[in-house]
Amino acid sequence: MGTAITFKRPDGKDASGYLANAARGNAPGVVVIQEWWGLSDQIKGLCDRFALAGFDALAPDLYKGKVVPYHDTDSANKEMNSLDFMDATTQTVRGAAQYLSRNGAKVGLTGFCLGGAVTIIGSVHVPELAAGVVFYGIPPEQAAKPADVKIPLQAHFANKDDWCTPELVNGFEKAMKAAGKSLELFRYDAEHAFVNEQRQAVHDREAAELAWGRAAEFFRKHLG
């Protein structure tokens, strides 16, 4: 449904990504950020789904063409740890947001796992954004403090998550509330990465559909 594109980062360098356009010409935009596996077919499928829901969706390729197979967690961890999160967010993700906003459209940001952490960093450092939806990812506070978040956030977390643990989630929620920030937070009795239908060991269709409906509604409310 979508297509591979190249777009400019604020520093003038080229970045690539997958773009799926909504049927209408003046649609709001959503930047979609990958899990630690890279720009997989599953993430492209989510862009297609956003397009069908009425949004122009662009997933920037933060790994520059590298996609890690689902069984190879060591390689995924290596790729994630070698990613410059601040450069990825303030340059590549911001460039994607600028691309989607070029016709005056409002733009949101969403991401999964690694992309969830990038979404929170973007909510602090990318001025073009109007709203963010976080899926099971929280960055370290030195990358983005809850007190510095500038946009409304919705967040989806799994109770059986040993990476983005319930304790970490509770701390994030508490810090956001203490700072008076706009946060809708949902917890699901599911595993980390429960939205990813290509990973049957962790996919929870009921939780995934509930989260999808909430995310689409939140973006319609804040992006138009």
From TrEMBL:
Gene Ontology MF annotations: hydrolase activity
Sequence ranges assigned to domain Dienelactone hydrolase in this UniProt record: 17-222
SUPFAM superfamilies hit by this protein: alpha/beta-Hydrolases (SSF53474)
A Pfam family reported for this protein in Swiss-Prot or TrEMBL: DLH
Entry keyword set: Hydrolase
Gene3D superfamilies xref list: alpha/beta hydrolase
Enzyme class: hydrolase
UniProt-listed Enzyme Commission number(s): 3.1.-.-
PANTHER family: ALPHA_BETA-HYDROLASES SUPERFAMILY PROTEIN (PTHR46623:SF6), CARBOXYMETHYLENEBUTENOLIDASE-RELATED (PTHR46623)
Protein name (database record): Dienelactone hydrolase family protein
Organism: Bradyrhizobium symbiodeficiens
